[in-house]
Amino acid sequence: MSEKWYPVIDYEICKECGACFNKCKHEVYKKEGNRPVVVFPEGCVQGCKGCQSLCPSGAIQYVGDNGQTDNCACGCCNS
């Protein structure tokens, strides 16, 4: 798990579809109404972009993302 890598949601373009909330197995997100909220950023796995890859609006970016392709150890990116 990482304290230097975590998702940030752009609510101006978020469609509140729940894909990120449903995908993440690490309880990084909580739903407030239909809106996903990052409540446990340190639970995000360094290099994991599983929820970003499912976001239909491209509303998820990561603090700590240097643009390099990292392989995450959790397997979320591959499932």
Automatic annotation (TrEMBL):
Assigned keywords, A-Z: 4Fe-4S, Iron, Iron-sulfur, Metal-binding
PROSITE patterns (alphabetical): 4FE4S_FER_2
Protein name: NAD-dependent dihydropyrimidine dehydrogenase PreA subunit
Gene3D superfamilies: 3.30.70.20
Domain 4Fe-4S ferredoxin-type: 5-34, 35-65
Superkingdom of origin: Bacteria
Source species taxonomy: Bacteria, Bacillati, Bacillota, Clostridia, Eubacteriales
Keyword Metal-binding listed: yes
